[in-house]
Amino acid sequence: MYGYSGNILHIDLKERSHWVENKPEEWYKTYIGGVSMATRLCWENIEVGCDPYSPGNPVCFANGIFTGTPVPVGGKYGLASKSPMTGFIGDSLSGSWFSIAMKRAQYDGIVIHDASENWIFLFIDDERVEFLPADKLLGLGTYETEEAIRDYFGDDQVRSATIGPAGEHMVRFGNVTNDGRQAGRTGHGAVWGSKKLKAVSIRGTHGVTVADPDTLLKMSFDITEASQGKDTEKYRIYGTSTNVMNMNKLGLLPTRNYTEGVFEFAELVSGEYLDEHHKVKVIACAQCPIACEQMSMVKQGPFAGAMTGIEYECLQAVSSNCGIGDMTAAIRLIDIADRSGMDAMSMGVTISYAMECYERGVLKKEDFISERTPEGIELNFGNGPGAVNLALMIENREGIGAILSEGTRRAAEYFDKERNAETYKWAMNIKGLELPGYDARALKTFAVGLAVGTRGGCHNRSAAYDPDIKSETNRFTVDETRGKVAASSEEYAAVYDTLPMCKFIRRCFTGKADRAGAWPAIANLINATTGWHFEYDDVDLIGVRAHTIKKAFNIREGWKASDDDLPWRWKHEPMTIGPSAGHVVTDEELAYLKKIYYEAKGWTEEGLIPKQLLIDLGMEDVAEEIGV
Ligand code: SF4
Question: Which residue's CA is the closest to the ligand 1 atom numbered 8?
Fold first, then answer.
């Protein structure tokens, strides 16, 4: 096989053993790589119905089809487990040198089973696997852990995916970090913590063989050249943080825990402000000519020295959404999240939830007493230093930080019972995963895309905000086209997440980001890599199959149509200012949107998948288990 090694490495943490499984080429043609293959590996290896923190929940890596080749932005991998946030599939993407090391060690995927009794880190040295004690790594941050492991081996070719203190403490929204990039959102760090797995380190020394190196090189060169043009300017110059001003103008910028969509201090936390006052350099993932990561630093004041990469989603979650108009506090908050290995989006929305609890009197100053805050915290919206202290309490599960480290859904369940309150009304999550940076009350196609999302409140898997924001649809209303638009947008996104390729390259094939612009070029890249004969329709099916296996996983784990829901606030409380004021998504609208979405997918009225559909997609064994 070209492009792949055909090897899936299995590692058992309890037995301290490993073995290699060989998959047939047809399996690769069906699941390709990234989130699709990682989910399929979960499907095959999980103990159905298990607790996400139990040994029966495996850690599944799946590499990219283009990883280790010259194809721009193709150096990525997928990571999947059952999510402790949602109880459904937790599929994330990361990339850079770790995925290249995995490819060079000749593994298309890695499945880590069971749990260790003592803290360990794994060292995969081509075909050799070592289980090494991690005692000396405990307490180290994500970047420090990577460095310590490299120093231990004295070899900078050893690349590691790690968890920080948040993962060790099983902060439910802990994440996994490699090469400064995060496999974020769904709580992988906590799953690794439950297995006492501090890091996975790899050294790979083999080459990657492709079917048609000349064509692949020529195409890669052309795409690289195009990637330096105006289509990627936004990412290369300011990064995604320019969205702060764009969303503010549309009245969609999450502000004070999604109570409003316009923030009076938006300019002070904008991409433009970041560029002028805090940017120190721009960095890139391995295999990427775009380089979107805006490394930013606080040079003076109480948070001096904080430095990390800033992008829109994390920035809005910890700034406007917390009512914080101080960029230095925002950088410090993201710095804490990145070093401790926490998802900055979930952390920010959990802090904004706690701020609203404080403003409404459910939580008091003394609820926030800890060793670092002996007086407690007056946690009003806008209190940057207070938010920083709370983030550290969450990281270390100190005091009330232990409850908040469970995320907004579980924290609301706790406080509503303990304090006879109704904080669920401002716990801003879907299926337990905190929301992204676009207010869906005035983005009706995106609203259904989010509600039905297989990994919860996630903009990255749906992308249905795009047609709403670009006025391809009327974003304030509902009509019969929206089911198809939402289904099409998630399947489109799933193609990129499965190859995986960074979506920022999507306009660099022909200047058009749509299927017609990109799929023929992607088919040619796949064929030059593998020697297959993919065409437009085969590329389209990559996304359909990826989304189907994720949905099938959720059905088998107990998903029901009522799980496809929106937060209470979005259904009942309109914003009061700005161009998106006055709108909610009513229960009737949501029920209609879900109905036409399930229809567009070819599913039953209850949102289940017909057997024949699964068989037609080449998923016979899935059809047997969950098809109707
Ligand atoms: S554009 Fe940004 S996120 Fe995408 S591959 Fe390049 S550096 Fe990584």
Answer: 285
